[in-house]
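3.2 Worked example (two chains)
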Amino acid sequence: MTKFGALTVVGILTSIAPAAVAVDTSHVDVVPAAFTVAADAPNDAQPATPPSRKTESDLIERAFKGEPITLKFDPQSCQTHDFGTVSCDVTYDARYDRKTNQWTVSGPQRSDHAIATYTSANADPKPGYVAIWGMVVTFDNSGNLMHLGEKVGSVQLK
């Protein structure tokens, strides 16, 4: 047990991110913002989620869990990049299957504008990565679609 002024810390378990903090709150008027503690909290209270960490409602997490998304490449991106059979300034529907690490994407082909659906499994199996007809791109929670580190379009939940 360690005393910090009026705050008594009963114990701390540490790793790269603290796993648990036990705090005696009986003599505390102000609780440090880094912890979520109530007066009747048990001695295994968990640290609050830091603002920089993503929550379950984020775009990349929801897409990774299989919610459908739409993708659209900016028209100017096609002037500087060759995206193969993918067209710019049109919407593609995509859905991730986490069990098989497959992205199924539907939309118009660049050559004849016919609607096609392809399934690709070559993206890294982690949030923020998507395979569009074999081409791997990334996206962030702000809806920025990125190719080789450059913004080339947008992503949103369908």
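3.2.1 Second chain
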Amino acid sequence: MAFRIDWLTDWLRQQPQHHLLLERQDRGVAPNIIGATQIRFLLHTLGETHDLTRFPIAAHPVGHAQETLPVLLDTEAGTATAYPSGWQFAASPEVLHTPREYLCDFPSADPELFAAYQRAGIADSSFSVFFRSVHGYDLPREAPTPAWFNGRTDLITLRRAMDWHFGCDEALGVTIDPDTQDSVLPDGTTFSRCTNSAHLMAEKLGGAVTGFPAEANPTATYENIVDAGGHDFALIGDRYVVDLWVGVYGGGRDQAGRPLPCVYDLRSDDLHEQQLNQTLFGNPECWEELARYDQPAAPTSEVKAMPDLRREFLVIDMVDYDVAIENDRHLAIKDCGGSILANLDNDPEVSGNRYSDELKFAVLETGRGEPRPYEVSFDPEHEGGTCYFSPCDGKTPLLGEVEKWVGAHFDQIESIGCSALSTREEVDEVMGCSQRAMVRPG
């Protein structure tokens, strides 16, 4: 478990984020919200496999936390503060005895940054390998579409995909109203009213908003629903109930203590599923259709695009250079013609070495200390000079790896230029041809 948390926190720290949030200060997003979002993403990724007693948390009584640490997030349970290497949770002793309850109930962090973490994870094969090692199944890369509800996709696959893409506030796009502390859905309606999330999912997936008053459906005995006086949900394909209110909003659990899923199959022949369906939704003959969306909602120009997480700045000699990930394959450091990176130009006419065009590789180091070869090139004509780092494994480059290599080889690049790079044969010797084949980036 400690390895899982260490690997994931290390992966999160490698994701570019600080400038993304600084650029959005007009939205009132504080840079410290990064840590809160990382905690939420960590909890969402590990799911029920995590043990928060093994979290990298140092317990301090209220009022005795180190004041030099930046405040991350204030909650009723106490104050969470951020370390470079982890998090500190300062709260009363009784809270520290049950950290799972309080950390899981953190207010929503930043859903756009959270979504960007999700996209980065989907694009990163190492994250996919990690996810499978934790859960025993593949990371659900695609969000469910109406075609998933045609009866040919098994319920377990549906639930895994729904839980990953919609199974927490941030994944769903929920924000917190700073004045009322109410949970607000992406369409601006309150999450506290079940009808609103039912409309959201029925419109997204093409289905009906269906529900019942509690007194008209006595076999629906789930306490939260009875207390609310009734319940509404999305019915997809007249077979699947999609309900985010009982699980995501209400944090409900079944009799075995497992979190309630986002989707239910009314035609399931599993006895446990049948009992759960009846407890939550009672008798379908007591339901009433409130609205129907025959076609799923199509994206419009009014839908705000999520920010591209994989965009950052690389600092060289106290100068920020714009960085972008292009086609998920190339990390481009732009307008760097005046920096030492221009020295990596391996054009023989520039270097004065007729063999320098063979010097175009570098072995970088991953967050786990493993070697990872990149192809390196410099284009003096593109956007004021652009330096490209392209992983030879064909996977998504990481700024943290590039930044570490540039820092470690700064003096070499400055003094011997592209001779700081390696030939293909030299990299093959380092990597071991029998262990890892070099794949030229496309």
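3.3 Remarks
Residues 2-133 form one domain.
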